[in-house]
Amino acid sequence: MQSLQPLRSFSNVGYVSESRNFAGFASNNSVSHRIEPRGSLRLKVGEGDLIRIVLAGHDRHLGLLAFGPDGSRQEAAFGITTIDSVSSDDFASAPLLGWLHAQRCDAPSGLSAGRVAFQDDGVVLRAPSALTVWLVNPTSQVQLVDGGRGATALVEHTAHSTPARLPEPFGDVREEFTIPRGTARAYEIQRGEILQVIDVEGQQCSDFQAFGLAALGRAQERLIDATATRSMVRRSFPGPGLFDKFFDAAMTPMLRVVRDTCGRHDTFGMACTARGYEERGFPGHVNCSDNISEALADFGVAPRTAWPAINFFWNTWIDPQHHIQTDESHSRPGDYVAMQALDDLTCVSTACPDDIDPINGWNPTDVHIRIYRSDTKLTRSVAYRHKEDAPMQISQESAFHERLAPLTDQFAPARDLWLPVSFPSHGTLGEYWACREAATLQDMSGLRKYDVVGPDAERLLQRALTRDIGRLAVWRGSYALMCDDTGQVIDDGTLFRMAPHLFRWCCGSEESGRTLKALADRDDLQVRIHDLGGALPNLALQGPKSRDILRKIVFTQPHVPTLDQLKWFGATVARIGDRDGVPFFLTRSGYTGELGYELFCSKEDAVRLWDAVMDAGASLGLKPMGSAALEIIRIEAGLAAAGAEFAASVDAYEAGLGFAVDRKAADFVGKTALERNATAPRRRLKGLLFDCQDVPPQGAPVYCGERQVGTITSATQSPLLERSIAMARLSVEHAETGKTLEVGQLDGRMKRLTAEVTDVPFVDPKREKARA
Questions:
Q1: What is the distance between the alpha carbons of residues 727 and 707, in angstroms, rounded to a whole number?
Q2: 242, exposed or middle or buried, with CB in 10 Å at 0-12, 13-18, 19+?
Q3: How many CB atoms lie within 10 A of CB 126?
Q4: Exposure of 106 by Cβ count < 10 A (0-12 exposed, 13-18 middle, 19+ buried)?
């Protein structure tokens, strides 16, 4: 069999070495992607496009499938003359098979792919013509420790010409058309069909309205009612998830939002009108309301001077003075909203002509419409971008979703995954008490994980984190902070040492990876930063009976710590049952303040791990838990959260995280600023105990008399304390324990909640439960 080797002639492209930082790469005119173990990637390439790939590990190869516009196989165009069979069990083949079905190709009984092999500096491929390329990263097992078989692939696609703005269709398109800027078009969709409204160039608003087709036949205009919709979904506009529907005035659902890659729309304003432009000095300006009336004339809809509309991609908000504000749209080229029709509908869409204010980025452009047949399968998703200019990722279902979906419909986006909020069979309060009295199991796969490997790994982490990493023993962990040079917290997480030169950093955001990469590049360190992406889903088993549950299933080899040898922040590698059981990385850690553990496994073992833990805990009161119950417990435990206790302009001490700053540690980033700030602190994080059940919102002002002296960072009603509690950032002059303060409600003046200042955590202040 012939393996494809790097094309050395493209010296202007350059190559990426595996010997150093592995956090990512991209040139200014390229788009970067990752293919996790068992993952796949589809690229639509044009003639002359370059595909650059780097893959770490020893058995380094990917599978490549190429298809021409007519569906013919085109691997030979890349110089591959023979192909291997690829087991659909060794990667998540559903997206590929679904795409083949959408192209009306028969799904093959067996998959075959060209074998792309690698040398140390990767491989560069050049597309000879316009093709659809699938890259698959098959593996039968994802190793937990080394970077061998099962590594993440980095792919950079550089377009030879300007890429098409339209996203790839995700199903069988019945009809599609472009609405030129400044115009509108009416059309019909049938019950079950999916409508996709696409912003072609970015920052372009599209007014939308829909009418019940049967009611129009009776000369009745049953249309989307924005007020009814906001009342039903309890937010400004619906989105994928539990509250996902547009309603008419009778509160009958008309459309269900399945995907939304922008996440910022308007339901308050009317479609632009002739009068609106006249009042601003532009008589005769083309407007959406007149365009809508004209487009709907043939459908029996009476014209209106001003049309109520759903204004997709229009960026509006209500300021503290209750004024509606607007600015340039957040949408990028190719962003879209996809909705499923819940009735036969007549719809109308516009490409807004407004060119005298920022709503269309000062430059109106086109809108594209696609209508998919009712048998199109589309998972609910939102867009996730780990940085503002990063490529869009569609949110995915967790590796544990197969077991979670039958238990709840209450999912919400958590970074790039859908994770449960609550489980109706027990409810948030039932889950809370299970964690306090027995045990709970929670999907925490939204955590970010980075393996830091190499002879300079310790040196890098000493520089990046606020702990003395040199004192961290193998199979031990430590909670740590990552700060900037002003002492503000960039991210927090837990670092585990798995070998002398191998660490695993479990944290909250991709900013950790970017910071580690920047420090490694600056100091020219011999280290690889391996972003595990979604390759290591994890569960949190928390509660006083968590150890008893694990004793039933955990097997460890003699060379690693046993379950009973794991102290707080200990780690080990374990298996389910015996030496041949499912492997997982086991740590004694959590986010509840209770005795607890976290279990990290490969994707293909996720369901088996869930089943083993749930079966072992059935007799001990184990229950699944969602994010709502976790929020109550973490506030009672005084645990900080990003965007709440630590945020912009807040240093580590003001965030209540001074315990994680080791002043004897090496010269970590931010140390000088923190030492300076510690000598004259201005604010402290304290607790507030209320004598009522009212829960103040985050950001509520804290008063001493008429003067504001602090701000609420997190608050909840404590089931254990039977009162409301809050964490607040207070001026040091008013942070004395026992002091009485007030939290302002109704603009801070018309209602006050009396509270007593206390220390945090509210429950188990010595962390005796976690240390048990």
A1: 19
A2: middle
A3: 19
A4: exposed
Task: Kindly give, in sequence order, each residue whose CB lies less than 8 Å from that of residue 568, ignoring residues fewer than 6 positions away.
Answer: 588, 589, 767, 770, 771
At residue 81, the pLDDT reads 65
Q: Which residue has the higher pLDDT, 153 or 27?
A: 153
Q: Is 407 exposed, middle or buried (0-12, 13-18, 19+ CB in 10 A)?
A: middle
pLDDT at 375: 93
First vs last C-alpha separation in the chain: 58
Q: What are phi and psi of 683, to 5 degrees?
A: -135, 150
The label of the residue with tokens 């867009």 reads 383
| Closest listed residue to residue 211, CA positions, set 107, 116, 298 | 298
Separation between Cα atoms, residue 250 and residue 232, nearest integer Å: 11
- Helix, strand, or coil here: 746? coil
* 222-229, long-range: CB < 8 A, 24+ apart: 222/248, 222/249, 222/250, 222/252, 223/248, 223/308, 224/248, 224/254, 224/255, 224/308, 224/310, 225/249, 225/308, 226/267, 226/268, 226/308, 226/310, 229/267
Residues 318-324 have a mean pLDDT of 89
Query: In the structure encoding, which two tokens stand for residue 496, read together?
Result: 């585990």
**pTM, rounded to two decimals:** 0.82
Spatial separation of the C-alpha atoms in residues 686 and 734, rounded to whole Å: 10
Cα-Cα-Cα-Cα dihedral sign, residues 180, 186, 187, 192 = positive
Q: Cite the beta strand spans of 56-108 per DSSP E.
A: 61-67, 84-86
Calculate ∠ Cα 231-232-233, nearest 5°: 100
Q: CA-to-CA distance for 299 and 30, rounded, in angstroms?
A: 45
Model confidence band, residue 324 (pLDDT cutoffs 50, 70, 90)? very high
Phi, psi for 113 (deg, rounded to 5): -150, 150
User: Phi/psi of residue 474, each to 5°?
Assistant: -60, 140
Please, are residues 224 and 247 in contact by the beta-carbon 8 Å criterion?
yes
Q: Which of 316, 312, 317 is nearest to 350 (CA)?
A: 312
Cis bond before residue 761 (omega within 30° of 0)? yes
Tell me what the pLDDT averaged over the chain comes to.
Answer: 89
Question: What pLDDT does residue 145 have?
Answer: 35
CA-closest candidate to residue 31, choices 20, 16, 21, 45: 45
Question: Cα–Cα–Cα angle for 234, 203, 335, nearest 5°?
Answer: 70
Output 44 or 309, whichever has higher pLDDT: 309
| Sign of the alpha-carbon dihedral angle for 244, 246, 251, 252 | negative
DSSP element (H, E) containing 752? strand 751-758
DSSP 214-271: HHHHTT---BB-HHHHHHHHTSSS--SSSS-EEEBTT--EEEEEEEESS---BSSSBP
CB 228, CB 216: distance < 8 Å = no
Query: How many secondary structure helices (H) and strands (E) does the chain include?
Result: 14, 44
Q: For residues 7 and 282, what is the distance between their CA atoms, to the nearest angstrom?
A: 58
Beta-bridge partner residues of 600: 538, 585
List the structure tokens of 27.
């040139």
Tell me the one-letter amino acid at 119: Q
Helix axes 427-437, 627-636, angle to 10 degrees: 50
Token duo for residue 738:
């026992």
Packed helices 457-464 and 511-523: angle between N→C axes, nearest 10 degrees: 120
- Assess contact for 652 and 484: CB atoms under 8 A: no
Which residue type, as a one-letter code, is found at position 312? F
